[in-house]
Specification:
The protein is built from ten helices and 14 strands. With 363 residues, it is an alpha/beta fold.
Length: 363
Amino acid sequence: MTDRVYNFSAGPAVLPVPVLEEAQKNLLSLPGVGMSVLESSHRSPHFTEIIETAESNLRKLLKVPEGHRVLFLQGGASFQFSMIAINYLRGTGKPADYILTGSWGKKAIKEAKREGEVNTIWDGADGNYNRVPKQEELNLSPDAAYVHYTSNETIQGVEFSTEPEVGEVPLVCDASSDILSRPLDLSTYDLLYGGAQKNMGPSGVALVIISERLLDRVPTEIHSMLDYRLLAENHSLYNTPPTFGIYLMMLVGKWLLEEIGGLEEMYRINQQKAGLLYDLIDGSGGFYRGHAEPESRSNMNVTWTLQSEDLEKEFLAEAKNLGLCELKGHRSVGGIRASIYNAMPLEGVTALRDFMETFKKSH
């Protein structure tokens, strides 16, 4: 373990060490199977147990309602940007409402516009996407096909603390970077999705949780691999799914349930970790300047700048020498970004906080 750094990457991101150790231990052969999960048929009894356990873990953690289906699909959130619009915007004659709070929301809008009319019902560009909107700022369309928002923007470091209220219009959420970080009321959502590589597992898998009422709205004659209803009817096994990724998702769910104790406890830990950094930023006298407004701050991605780019380069170099890695902010925002997802231990955040304090004093 001595050669592992603290990996603050926004994604693919740090995974829990117990998950990596269990996967390593059983990589050559699953217990009682005689072959690796990497070699196993997706229709074998032992993989059926894996995918069913992965779903069961998620249903327990997120308290998924009975009227919602759980899908494990190829790709990531970016593929879902198109898939959602193809299933629920194309040919409807209705607009889709999008709440724009950062870079990933902008990408989702770009893909949706290929399939139909899009209303951007709130855009945080004026503040360089440093906050999320208040409910009264949303200019909702009563006839919208759906309302889409990004619950946590990894690049800007802003996060919704509560869901937007949209009435009877289906609510769709890209929860890639904060899913499993806190409890959710999934009865509020008709479709919630996310790439696995932040809090759930490795890259290459997308989780989609979708209501039966939205499955019923999938049009006929849609391409098979883009058809949510067909994929749900086949329990994510219409074709070969990303088997190793689903296996790791199963292990992450097990870790959250057995070692963390569920999402309420995970949320408490995440608030504690984020608080260490935000308290230091706020108390730095302007040496560190947070990007997000306090009421919109993300518990997953803490973003800030220093007084000059040269100072930021020095900060990053010194941090890397201490094993505090992948802290450079996204090119569109600059500065520093610490992604402190579920698997980032409190010790790693404490080490970063202590370095930040030392760096401030020495400069």
